[in-house]
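Cross-posting from the modeling subforum.

Setting up a comparison between two proteins and wanted a second pair of eyes on the formatting. Protein 1 (sequence, then C-alpha cells):
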Amino acid sequence: MGRRPGAFARAAATRARAFRDMMHGAVDGMGEDVERNNARWDRVVLKVSGEAFAGEAAYGIDGHVVQEIARQIVKVREEYDVQLAVVVGGGNIWRGMAGAGAGMDRAQADYMGMLATVINALALQDTLEQLGQPTRVQSAIHMSQVAEPYIRRRAVRHLEKDRVVIFAGGTGNPFFTTDTTAALRAVEIEAGVVLKGTHSGVDGVYTADPKLDPGAELLAEVSYIDVLSKGLKVMDSTAISLCMDNELPIVVFDLMGDGNVGSILAGEPVGTLVS
C-alpha cells in the first residue's frame, strides 16, 4: 500500500533538518557580511533628477540607466554603514514649468509633475528590489495602492531597518521643485548631507558653463552665499536657503561616474562641496 508510518516520520524529520541547516547557513552568512566601512555621514539623501532616468533619450525611462543607478545604491549599501534615502524628479516625463509656459495653470502642471516622480520612484524601487535591496516608496500625494504616505517617523524607522526609502510626489505642494524636496526631507529626517547627482557629465560646480567655456574651472568648495549671489546653477534658491539655514551641506557630483557615491562617503574629494 505504500510506505510505513515510520517512513513518513523519518522523511519529515529529514526535511526539517535540511530546512534548519539552510536557515542556519543563511544566518551565518548574514553575520559574516555585517562588517561594513564607516561612512562620512551616517544618513544621506541622494537627489536623482528625472532627466537622469531618460538617459540619452529626451523622454521616458531608460532601463539600463535605472539599473546603473540602482547598482550604485546597492553597492554603497553593501560597502558602507550608511542609511540612504532617495528623492527623484520627474522631468523625463513632465515638467511643470514647461506646462505653465504652454499656457496651463501652474499649480495643475506642477501636480502632473508630482505624479511623474511617482512613476520614476516605482521604477527605481522595482530595480532595487530585483537586486535584493528592500525598498519603500513614500509619496507626498496620497495613493495608497502604490506607495506609502510620507510619514517622517515611519521613514526614519525604515532607514533604521536598512531599507532604502524613495521620496516621491515632491513636497505635495505646487511651486516647489524636487531639489527643495530633497533639502526639506533631508532636514526632516536629520540627514547629514544632500548628494546632488548630475546626469549631463558635469562633475561639480564650475566658474562658468564648462560646455561653453573651455576655461571654466571646477570649484572644490563653494559657500551657500556665493551660490545665491553669483547665480551658480546648483539648486534653486529655495533649496539652497533651506540648506543654509539648517547648516546642511550639499555635494554636487556626476551621478553616472562609476563609484562616485562610494568615494564621497569615503571622504574623498569628489565633485563640489557647498557649505
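Protein 2 (same layout):
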Amino acid sequence: MKEMKIGFIGGGNMASSIIGGLVASGMAANNIWASDPNADSLAKLKDVAPVNTGNDNQALIAQVDVLILAVKPQIMKVVALDIAASVQAHQPLVITIAAGVTSGSLATWLGGAPAIVRCMPNTPALVRSGATGLFANSQVNDSQRQQATAILEAVGVALWVEQENQLDAVTAVSGSGPAYFFLVMEAMQAAGQNMGLSEDVAKQLTLQTALGAAQMAINSDVDAAELRRRVTSPKGTTERAINMLEEGGLRQLFAQALEGARIRAEELAIELEGE
C-alpha cells in the first residue's frame, strides 16, 4: 500500500479520517492527493497530513491509482459527469463512500464500465474505530479488492458483501448503528440520574460500561448471547432487568427498526437515481 497513489475528490470529515488513518498506517503523505473547491477544507486536510491539494479534479485523476469519491450523494452525478473523460483515460479504481448511489448509476455517469467499489463506512471511522461494508462490481480485480480493503482498514474493520443490495442491510446495522447505541446510552444515563446519580457519574458509568462490553465482545471466543448468559445470575438484578427488556419487546423493536432503516436506504437510492 505504501507505493499506491490515492486521490480524494471531496475533503470533508470522512476524507480527513481516511487520510489520517492511511498516514498513521505508514503511507507517505506525498502519495495522497485531495481536491476540493473549498480552500478551508483543504487547509484542514493539510493539518492532518502534508498531502498534495488542489481544486483540479482532472489533474488529480492523472496522478492516482485509486480515486475516492468523498462527495455528498446529491452532487455525485454532477461530479461524475465532469470527471468521466479523465476516469476513462486513466482507469483508476473508483471507490465511492456516497450513500445510496449505486455502482450502476455511477458507472453510467462515468461514461462506461470502470472498476467501482461502493462502501458504507460509519461515523466511528472518524476515530478510526469504524465498520465499513464494501461491494465490488465485476470490473474490480483481486488486487484492487486488496487495495480497497487496505484503505478502509485504516479507519477500522472492512467487510465485503457479495450482493450490492446487501449494502442496505449494512446501512441498517452499522451505518445507522452508532445512533442506536447512543440512544441506549442516553436512556441508561437518564435512568441513572433518575435513581439519584449525578449527571457526571451516570455518564461516565454508562460510557465505560458500553466500552467495556464492546471490548469483551470483540475479544471473546463466544458470542454476545453467551456473554449475556454468563453475567445473568439466576434471580439476580441483571436477570430482572433483562426479563423486563425482553417482556417489553426489545428484540422485536430492534428487528422492526433495522428493517425500517434498510427500507429507507432502498428508498433513498431510488430517489437519488431519479434526480
